[in-house]
C-alpha cells in the first residue's frame, strides 16, 4: 500500500503481470518475486536507440529512469475517466508470465484480446531450456528462471521498456488534436464537494487573510468583449492542458527535464484560464520533476516570473529563518543541481522585499513544501467550478502523496531515500513531526466513508502505515480499527478478498498487543493482567467476531472464540462466556471437518497416588539397609549435605491402583469430560476408564466477586492443597456424573469449580514409570494432552529497562494461540510436575491368622510382663525368606514430643531418651523362627513378651518381610498387628530420702537393723529410704534388690510402705559429661554457671549409679512385673550424704587427759569450768596434695525466749566459752592418702547448748564437716 502513495507515483509505469501457460500459483509467486526483487528501475541509457520517436527517444535523456510498478490485478474500469487527467493510473504494459511452452503466440493473442486497453503486450517465459534461450520471437522473451541470469532479466526489461517508449510515443501523438476535458464531467463527483468547501481555509497552504487574484492582466471585462475573453481562456486552457498531459507522459518515459519544461509552460496558461484542477495537477508534476531531477543529478532552472504568480511566496511567507535558508539540499554533501541566476547565497531580506523572489535559492525541502501546499490549495479552489471539480480520489491521494513526501523529508538523508521510500531509523530533524501529524489530521475532515470501499481500504491502510513510520503505534492501531469497521458492512457481498482482511486483523492484533502469550510466558501473563488495554482488546476481538460472521468463516470464528476464552475469561461476564461457548458448539456442529483445542491449558492442577489396598509401602531392601547405617556420631557443619531423594511410590504389577486427579473449570459454563487417559513414560500402564469416579468439588463465586490476586485470566487458581480463601465454599452438589452412550466415564465439571477425580489404572509391565500428564477429551474439543501443573512462575523483581519495538511475528496470532494450546506450550508460564512410580513383580503376602489377645485388646498392670502368641500365614506364591520385627506404642509419640522442648536440661533429655531407646516394651522369645523360610501356604507362630508402661494406650507389632533374591531387586513389605492395651497402676514410688548410716543409734527398728547388717563400715554407707504405694486393688508381693542386698515384703492394697536399703557411698567424677543416647553432639549450655553444671552432673551420676544397681519387681499369683524406679529424685542434701568426699573432716571431743568423752552419736554432755580438747582429723583421699585454712565455728543454740525473759539480752559465744588459741589456723600441706590431726582446747563457763562445726578452706574448694557436734553444758 505504501508504494501506491509514493510521491513519485505519477512517474511510475503500471505493469500488469498475468500468469500464462497453466502457471501454478507457487511458480507464479516465484517468478513475481524474481522480477520485483531484481527489476526496480530501468535506465534510459540501457534502452536501444530509436530515432524514429518524436517525443520519447531515450538518447536525449540518458540519465533518465523508467520506474515499473508491478501489479497482479487491475481495476482500470473504475478509474478509466482519470486516464487522460492522470496517465499514470492507466495500465500501459501487460506481461504474460509463465513456464516455457511450445507456442507462446497463443498466449500473446489472448493477452491482447483480454487487455485491449494496454499499449504493450509482451510475454516472458521462465524455466526455458538452455538451447531455447536464443530463440527470436517478436514480443516474447525467454529466461531460465534462475538468479544466475539476472543480467538477462534486466536486458529483457530494457527491451520491454523500449517497446513501451515506442508505443507511448504513438499514444501521446494521438492526443495532439484532442480537446481534453476534466474527469468530473465524465463521472459524478459530488461526494467531497461540501467537505472541501468547508475545509478550504484549513487546507490552504498559507495565510487565510489574503485574497487570491489569479489574473494579472490589465485587460478588464469592461474593455474586452465577453466572447473574446471566453475564447482566449478556452484557448489557454486547451494549451495548458496539452502541456500538462505531455509533461505527465514525459514523467512516465523518464525524461524529467522535458516533463519539467512542459509543466512550467502549462502553469501560465492554466493560471490565466482559472483552470485550478489542471493547474494543481501541473504544479504537482513540477514537484515530482524536481525530486526526480535531484535524484538523477540533472540541472534545472525555475522561472521566477512564472512561479511567483502561482506560488505567491512573498504574500504567503512573511519571513524565512536565515539558518534554514542556508540549507541548499536535503543531503548536505550533494550540492543542488539548479543554476541560480542570482549571485546571492541565500534568500535574504532583499529577496523577500523584491518584486520577484528567487525560488532557485530556496532549499529543496522548503520549495517542495511550498509547491505541494499550493497543490492542495488549488485542488480545493477547483470545487467552485462544477465542471472542473477535483475528483475525490485525486484530491485525497494528492494529500497522501504530499504527506508521504513530508515523512520522507523528515526521515531521509538523501533524495534517493525519498524516491525509493526508504525510512531511516532516526529522523534528520529537517521537518517537525508535529506538522506532519497536522497534515495527516486534515484527512479526517473529509468524508472518506462516502468513497467506495476499495479506496477506503487503501486510504486507511496508507494512513496506518504513515503513523507506523512516525512511531505513533496507537494512532496506527486506531486507523486499522476504523478500516475494519469500514469494511464490515461489505464483507457479506464478497467485494473484498477474505485473505487480505485476515492479514489486516493480524496486524491490528499485533498493534493492540494481543500477540502476547500469557498462556505460555509468566512475564506476558503479568503484563497482561496489569494492562489497561484489556477493554480495548476485547472490543477489537468482538469486532473481529462480527467480521468472521459476515465472512461466514467458521474457522476464523472458532479461532477468535478460542483466543477470547483462553486469554480474556477473567474480563468476560457470564453471558458473554456462554455465548462464545454456544458459537463454538454451533460452528463445530455445522462444520464437521473443523476442530479446536480446549481453552484452558491448566486443566490438571494436582495428581496424587492413592494406595488402593491397606498395605504398607514397598521399599527396596538396599535403601533400608543403608538407612540403618547412616547415623553419624556427631554433627559436622562442613559435611556436604546430600539432596533428599523424592519418595517414589512402589506398586505391584497387575494390582489396581488409583490416582487422585484435581481438575479445574475456570469458565462460567459447564465442561463435559468424556474420557481421561494416563500418559506415561517407561513401563506400560493401562487406564481403567470404567472405574473413573468424581469426588467433591470446590465451587468459586462469580468472577465479579473473585479476588484479583490471580494475574491473567484466573486460569491458575489457588493450589488445591492449600486452604481455600473465604470466597470459596465446598459443595457436593456441584459435580454431576452422567452415563453416556458413548462413554461410561463421562462427567461434568460445574462452572468455576475444582473437582477431584479418582482414576484407576493397572500396571501391565515392570520397571520405572513416570506419569507426565493426561490425554483428555472435553466436550466438542479435540482430544489433547495436558501437563500436570505444579505452581505458577512469578518474577517478583521489578526491572526497568528500555522497551524495544517488537520484532515482526511470523506466525499468525490466532494460529499461535491454537498451536500453544495443542502443543501445551506452558513451560514458560508454569512449572509442571510428574509422578514417578516403581512397578515391581508380584510379591509375597503375609497375613495374620490368630493372636492370643481377645479382639487384640489387653488389660495389664503397669510394668506387667505378658506373653502374646501370634500366628502368621503366607498366602502367596512367593516364599518369605526375610522377616524382621519392631514395636510401636503411643508412648513413643509422647516422648518424642517432649524431646522437642529446647529448654530441657541434659539430665532431663537423658531420662526421656532412656525411656525411648533403652526400655524395651516388646521382645520375641522364639527368635529362631525369624530366620526360617516361610514357604507358600506355610504358617509360623511367634512367641512375644509385652511389658506395659504408662501412656501405652495403643501399640502395634510391625513385621517387615520380603522375598530376598540375589538376581533381582528385593522389596520389603510390612504387616502391622495392632494391640489395644489398657494399663492400670500397680506400685508407684511416692517418696525417697537418704540417711547417713553413722548417725543411727543402737535402738533402731527392725527394718533399719536388717539394713545395717549388710554394712561393714558405717562411714562408707548410707541408707536409701523408699516409700512405695500399692495402687492396685489386691495385695502385691514386692521385691527390691540392690547388689547383694535383697528385700521382699507384701504390700496391702492402697497402702504405702517404707523400705530401707543400704547403699555404699559413691565417688563421683564430675568431669564426665551427661551422655546422649541418640548420639547427639554435645552442646554446652551457657545459661547455667559452672557450679550449677557441676552440681547437675553430680546429681545425675549419683542417681544413675543407684538405678543401675537397684531393681524392683512385683508378683500377683501368675502375674508378675517390674517396678518403675525412675521417679527417684535426689536433692542436694541427699547427694551430699551419698557422695564419697575426697577431703574428709572428723571431730571428736576428748578430756584434758586425752580420754574419750562418752557420747550418743555426735551429741556430748559436758561439764562447765572444765577443760576439754576438740580433736579435728583432716584426711586427703584426693590425688594431689592440699593445704589451706581450717576454721572452728562454735556457736550457742538459742531457744525461743519467753515473754518474761524477752528483755534479757542474749550473750555471745565469747562470754559462754573460752578457747585456748585462735579458731582460725593455717594447716600445713597434706600429701595424697595422708591425714592431719589438729587439737583445740576450750572450757565452757556457762550452761547452755552449743553446736560446733568445722570448715576447711582450700585454695580451690571449701570443705564443710559433714558431722556437726552438739554439746550440752551443765
Automatic annotation (TrEMBL):
Predominant cellular place of this UniProt entry's protein: Golgi
Entry keyword Transferase: no
GO terms for cellular component: trans-Golgi network
Full protein name: Trs120p
Domain Trs120/TRAPPC9 TPR region, chain residue ranges per copy: 364-592
Record domain Trs120/TRAPPC9 N-terminal: where: 5-305
Domain Trs120/TRAPPC9 fourth Ig-like: 1143-1274
Domain Trs120/TRAPPC9 first Ig-like: 622-689, 743-841
The Trs120/TRAPPC9 third Ig-like domain, residue ranges: 987-1138
Keywords linked to the UniProt accession: Golgi apparatus
Localization of this protein: Golgi apparatus
Domain of life from the UniProt record: Eukaryota
